[in-house]
Amino acid sequence: MTLDALHEFAADMSPSLVVTAAVGLLMLLGFLTFKSVSSDSVLPMVPQLKGVPILGAIPMYFKHGMPYLLDKLIAIGEDGISYANVVGGVLVSVHDPAMIREVLAYPEEIASRDGDTGRMSWSPFWNLQRMIGSSLFNYVGPETGNQRNAFIREFGSARSNSEKFDTITKVATTHANALAGESSTADIDDMGYIANNFAIVLWGEDLYGSPNHHVVGPMLSVSDTIVNLSGSPWTPVWYYFQLLLKLVTLGKPTRSEAKLRARVDKLVQRNIGNLEEYERNNPGAPLKTIRNLSVMTGGGRTGPLSKLASEFTKLNVFGGHHNIGSIITWSLIDLDRHPKCLAKLMAEINSVDITDFTTINSKMPYLDAVVMESNRLRPTVHATLRVINRETTLTSSKKPVVLKPGMLVYVSYLHLHTSPKFWGPDAGEFVPERFLGGYKKDQPFMSFGYGPRSCVGYKYAVLASKVYLATLLKTYQVDVKDKDHEVKLRSLLETAKPVAVKISRRS
User: Fold this and answer.
1) Measured between alpha carbons, how far is 402 from 43 in angstroms, rounded to an integer?
2) Positions in the chain whose pLDDT score sits under 70
3) Which among 326, 301, 472, 337 has a CA at the least distance from the CA of 413?
4) CA angle 18, 22, 28 (to 5 degrees)
5) Residue 11: Cβ-neighbour burial (10 angstroms; 0-12, 13-18, 19+)
6) From residue 184, how far is each of 194, 432, 478, 481, 500 by CA, in Å?
7) What does the pLDDT read at residue 215?
8) What are phi and psi of 408, to 5 degrees?
9) pLDDT at residue 434, as a whole number
10) pLDDT value for 3
11) pLDDT value of position 25
C-alpha cells in the first residue's frame, strides 16, 4: 500500500482508530525527535496545559481538534497567555488583545506564517505553499510591502471598488434572479453553497471576464480540498513520516499534493484562457482586475502575467470566496432568527437606491452593522498562528515572556469576538446595534486579521457581500427552514449542516 493510499485509508477509519494510529505514529516521531525540556524552564510563570509524556497535548489535538485545544489553553490563561508542549515543541496561546496585536505586528524575521523554510514546519501555511506554490502568504522582507500595496490599490480603495461596482451588481442581480428562474418560489438545499458559488462567479467575471456564469465547475471542490488538507493534523504527520523515510524532499510536495497542485494549475490555465478570450473579443474594454494587477507589478497590457498576478491566480483558487459566502450565509441565518433586525434592514434597503455605489458602500449603516455583527460572531478565519523565527520578548504581557525559535503562537479571533470580558454580557447574541456609530476601541474586532498580514481584500469582500445581501433580500423573502444551525470549526468556520431555505419573490 502506498503512502498516499494509506493516507486515504486513514481518512475512512473510525475516529478512535485514527486517534490510536496517530498517537502511535507520533510516539515514534516523538522518541526520534524528543528534546528533554523542563516544563518550568520553557515559559516561566506562564500557565501550562498538562499533556502526556513525550507527546504533550498532541493526543488532545487529534481527538478534539485545535479549537478545543485553544479553548482549554484560554481557560487556564487568565492573564492572556498559556502554553502546552506538543511532541518536541511548544504551542503558545495568546488571547489578550494587546499581546495579539504585538505578535501580529512582528516582522517576518521574528515571526512568520511558515517558519524557518530550512526545516520541517507544522504550520498550515507551510502545507498550503506545497499545494498551491508561492503566494503573497509567503512573501517576506520589503517585497511584502510592495506587493501588498498593489493589492490594496486594487481591492482596498474606494475608487477601485467603485469601478468594480457595476460588475458586482450585474453578477449579483443575474445570480439572484436565476435562483427561482421563472417561478415565484424555490427551495434551495444549501444557501451556503449558493453564496460560495456567487463569490466564485464574481471572481471569475471580475478577474478574467469569464462568461461561464452559474457554471459551478470544479473550483469549489478543489478549494475545499486545499482548505481541509492544509489545516488537517494528518497532513504534517504524513509529511514528517515521508521525510523520515526519505520519500520526499523538504519543502517539496508529496505525490498526492503534487496531484492536487496539478488540478490547481489546470484551473488556473482555464481562467487565463478565459482572460485571453475576453481580451481578444473586447480589445477596447477596461482591463480586467488580474490584468490591472499585472500591469501595476511589471507585466504588460497583454501577454504573460507578472509574477505577482500569476501567483494570485493560484491563490484565488484557494481563497477569496469563502469569506464572501460565509458573511452572506450567516447574515441570512441571523436575520431569520431576529425578525425585528430583518425588518429594520428591509426598511433601509427599500428606502435607498442599492444600485448606487456611494449609497451601499457608505450610506447604509444598518446593513453595515448586520455584516459587522455577523462577522464578529462567526469570523470565517477563526484563528491564525505565527511561527517564532528569532528569540524575542513579548513586552505587552504582565511580565515579559521570552518566545523562542520554533514556538507556534496561536491566536483565536473567535474567542476575542465572543468574550464577555470585551463585549459585555450579550457577547454571544446577535445585536447589530452595537456597531451603529462605531464601536469602542477596547473591543477587539479582527475578522480580517491585524497588522502587516491583515487581509488586503476585505473591503472588496464586504462590498460584494453587502450588494448580494441587499439584492437577494430586495428580490425575495428568504425563510431559513431549520432554526438550529450551529458553528463547525475546521480550518475555517462553517455551518454544521447545509442551510436549506425557501425563497419567495416579492411583489
Assistant:
1) 7
2) 1-41, 136-143, 211-217
3) 326
4) 155
5) exposed
6) 18, 31, 12, 18, 17
7) 52
8) -100, 120
9) 94
10) 46
11) 53
